[in-house]
């Protein structure tokens, strides 16, 4: 196996073998290999990614796995997909942060999760399907957009203020906004919604384009058409969104009067009677004539936009929603997904993020202070696996000289969103002979091998952090950092990739070069130590290790925090 410069287009294997053939044809074509015996089928580019295995092997594995019906989410590791998958499924600060479905302050009448859903819609609604501009790109974070009458209210500012910090180089601000809306719907009684990553954050505000309540039905139909939705889909999307929240007096005094209600201090007129829950009451109450929706029964007919929209097809769509909560839920799942996947031209979303059945997590791989041992902090998560104290899980790892070592894993506990998952890890970090190193991991579960269909879980130990690194808590410098470079590897550059933000808050990476040792490295030493050259006031918390080989750059570690190292003396 060697580092491949090829990029393979692989499409997630759904359920059918022909779909898989589709994927494999795409991959074959990308490799310029003949695909004579396969039926041609429409191809869709989904994701470009680089693997640490030869593309030919990857292709064959993908194809045969698909043909025998083994659906795979993606091949580990893939830094972006790993990060998106973890944010979607693992317990993490983002999911822990999301509030409950109840009103943020039960007496305010307002609910935070509704803000997140409305924020996602307003971000998307600038899309122009003809020109391919606007869409889910987090342009709603710009004060200029928020100041427009079409974006009245403080919900956008609040949402961005709360969620922006969860974005990073792999999960854009707009990915976070999309996932927040999805999680809000799913947690509050709604259907599962497909989540893709890969949105790209705008560098400036988009052209205006969010519909407003006082506008005519014709202009709303035209507006949704510009966004890429038919009239029927418009009715659906508005009903799906307006199953949450309501209209607040402060930004819309002409629609909702001051209520002077101690149980609704912000004077919010809700769209339905269950405004913190996803259900079809928005439709049943509308059809039964009991609705209090301020955009249906508001005193000012001009601003009754929901009334005009819902009745625009003779109430056919709303009747169908009222008759079937299941139809409403499945329609909303599809429409929300389309809304969130509406992106500017040129943005290539990932495949739908599904949980990896077996997912290692290399928290840290570093050379110890003696220079003779590699310390590996690793765990593995098995998705949809029930608890079983009698289960025996082993980690086997392969080294550079053809040896295999193993350790029995323990300390499992239940993790995961939506389904049961089990995480196993060695009792302590593994101490690996530095000369032998590590090239790949495999797992054994009650004797059954888990190795990604034979390719194993590759580990790169050519450029790793050195345990000589240390952090400074409060100082102009974040610490002193050293990178260990395997003597057999000949990188042209080695650097830290520090997480930072650009002038418009987009996550970026700042490369900080490391310098090689000035003295020649002794022949019997496995790693040379490179020193990272920090400028004054160059601060960061999160970083990865980067290396360049003959002009090809690659990230060599998971996201590390400088606090993983001891304080500097
Ligand atoms: C013609 C189209 C639409 C119009 C005119 C419209 C209008 C409004 C208005 C005036 C509000 C009150 C905002 C506030 O008081 O802060 C609101 C709230 C809301 N809208 Fe829409 N909307 C439309 C479509 C949509 C769509 C398609 C979605 C989502 C799919 C959506 C989701 C929401 C949500 C969740 C709220 C509640 C916000 C909260 O309670 O904080 N809306 N909408």
From TrEMBL:
<dbReference type="Pfam" id="PF00141">
    <property type="entry name" value="peroxidase"/>
</dbReference>
<feature type="domain" description="Plant heme peroxidase family profile">
    <location>
        <begin position="97"/>
        <end position="339"/>
    </location>
</feature>
<keyword id="KW-0575">Peroxidase</keyword>
<keyword id="KW-0349">Heme</keyword>
<dbReference type="InterPro" id="IPR002207">
    <property type="entry name" value="Peroxidase_I"/>
</dbReference>
<keyword id="KW-0560">Oxidoreductase</keyword>
<comment type="function">
    <text>Destroys radicals which are normally produced within the cells and which are toxic to biological systems.</text>
</comment>
<dbReference type="GO" id="GO:0020037">
    <property type="term" value="F:heme binding"/>
</dbReference>
<dbReference type="InterPro" id="IPR002016">
    <property type="entry name" value="Haem_peroxidase"/>
</dbReference>
<dbReference type="InterPro" id="IPR044831">
    <property type="entry name" value="Ccp1-like"/>
</dbReference>
<keyword id="KW-1133">Transmembrane helix</keyword>
<dbReference type="GO" id="GO:0046872">
    <property type="term" value="F:metal ion binding"/>
</dbReference>
<keyword id="KW-0479">Metal-binding</keyword>
<dbReference type="GO" id="GO:0042744">
    <property type="term" value="P:hydrogen peroxide catabolic process"/>
</dbReference>
<dbReference type="GO" id="GO:0004601">
    <property type="term" value="F:peroxidase activity"/>
</dbReference>
<keyword id="KW-0812">Transmembrane</keyword>
<dbReference type="GO" id="GO:0034599">
    <property type="term" value="P:cellular response to oxidative stress"/>
</dbReference>
<dbReference type="InterPro" id="IPR010255">
    <property type="entry name" value="Haem_peroxidase_sf"/>
</dbReference>
<comment type="similarity">
    <text>Belongs to the peroxidase family. Cytochrome c peroxidase subfamily.</text>
</comment>
<dbReference type="GO" id="GO:0000302">
    <property type="term" value="P:response to reactive oxygen species"/>
</dbReference>
<protein>
    <recommendedName>
        <fullName>Peroxidase</fullName>
        <ecNumber>1.11.1.-</ecNumber>
    </recommendedName>
</protein>
<keyword id="KW-0408">Iron</keyword>
<feature type="transmembrane region" description="Helical">
    <location>
        <begin position="58"/>
        <end position="76"/>
    </location>
</feature>
<keyword id="KW-0472">Membrane</keyword>
């Amino acid at each position: 196996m060697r580092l491949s410069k090829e990029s393979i287009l692989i499409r997630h294997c759904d359920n059918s073998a022909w779909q898989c053939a589709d994927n494999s044809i795409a991959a074959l074509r990308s490799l310029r290999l003949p695909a004579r015996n396969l039926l041609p089928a429409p191809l869709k580019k989904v994701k470009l990614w680089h693997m640490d295995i030869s593309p030919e092997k990857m292709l064959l594995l993908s194809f045969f796995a698909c043909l025998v019906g083994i659906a795979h989410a993606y091949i580990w590791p893939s830094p972006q997909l790993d990060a998106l998958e973890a944010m979607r499924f693992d317990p993490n600060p983002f999911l822990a942060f999301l509030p409950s479905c109840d009103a943020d302050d039960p007496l305010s009448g307002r609910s935070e999760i509704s803000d997140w859903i409305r924020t996602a819609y307003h971000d998307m609604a600038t899309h122009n399907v003809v020109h391919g501009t606007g869409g889910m790109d987090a342009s709603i974070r710009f004060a200029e957009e928020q100041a427009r009458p079409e974006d009245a209210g403080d919900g956008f500012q609040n949402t961005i203020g709360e969620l922006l910090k969860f974005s990073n180089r792999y999960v854009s601000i707009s990915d976070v906004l999309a996932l927040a809306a999805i999680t809000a719907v799913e947690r509050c009684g709604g259907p599962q919604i497909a989540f893709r990553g890969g949105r790209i954050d705008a560098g400036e505000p988009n052209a205006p384009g969010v519909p407003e309540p006082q506008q005519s039905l014709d202009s709303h139909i035209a507006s949704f058409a510009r966004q890429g939705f038919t009239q029927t889909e418009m009715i659906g999307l508005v009903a799906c969104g307006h199953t949450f929240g309501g209209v607040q007096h402060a930004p819309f005094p002409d629609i909702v009067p001051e209520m002077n209600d101690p149980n609704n201090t912000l004077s919010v007129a809700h769209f339905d009677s269950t405004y913190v829950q996803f259900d079809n009451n928005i439709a049943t109450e509308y059809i039964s004539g009991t609705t209090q929706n301020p955009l249906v029964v508001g005193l000012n007919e001009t601003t009754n936009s929901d009334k005009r929209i819902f009745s625009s097809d003779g109430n056919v769509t709303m009747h169908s929603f009222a008759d079937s909560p299941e139809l409403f839920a499945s329609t909303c799942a599809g429409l929300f997904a389309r809304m969130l996947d509406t992106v500017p031209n040129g943005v290539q979303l990932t495949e739908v993020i599904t949980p990896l059945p077996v997912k290692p997590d290399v928290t840290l791989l570093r050379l110890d202070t003696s220079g003779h041992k590699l310390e590996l902090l690793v765990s593995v998560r098995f998705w949809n696996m029930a608890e079983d104290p009698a289960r025996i899980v082993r980690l086997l790892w392969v080294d550079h000289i053809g040896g295999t070592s193993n350790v029995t894993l323990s300390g499992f506990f239940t993790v995961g969103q939506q389904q049961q998952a089990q995480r196993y890890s060695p009792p302590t970090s593994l101490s690996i002979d530095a000369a032998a190193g590590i090239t790949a991991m495999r797992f054994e579960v009650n004797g059954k091998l888990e190795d990604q269909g034979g390719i194993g879980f590759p580990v790169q130990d050519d450029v790793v952090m050195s345990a000589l690194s240390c952090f400074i808590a409060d100082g102009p410098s974040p610490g002193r950092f050293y990178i260990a470079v395997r003597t057999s590897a000949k990188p042209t550059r080695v650097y830290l990739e520090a997480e930072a933000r650009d002038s418009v808050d987009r996550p970026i990476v700042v490369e900080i070069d490391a310098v090689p040792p000035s003295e020649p490295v002794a022949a019997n030493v496995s790693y040379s130590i490179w020193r990272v050259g920090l400028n004054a006031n160059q601060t960061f918390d999160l970083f990865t290790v980067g290396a360049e080989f003959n002009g090809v750059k690659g990230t060599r570690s998971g996201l590390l925090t400088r606090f993983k190292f001891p304080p500097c003396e």
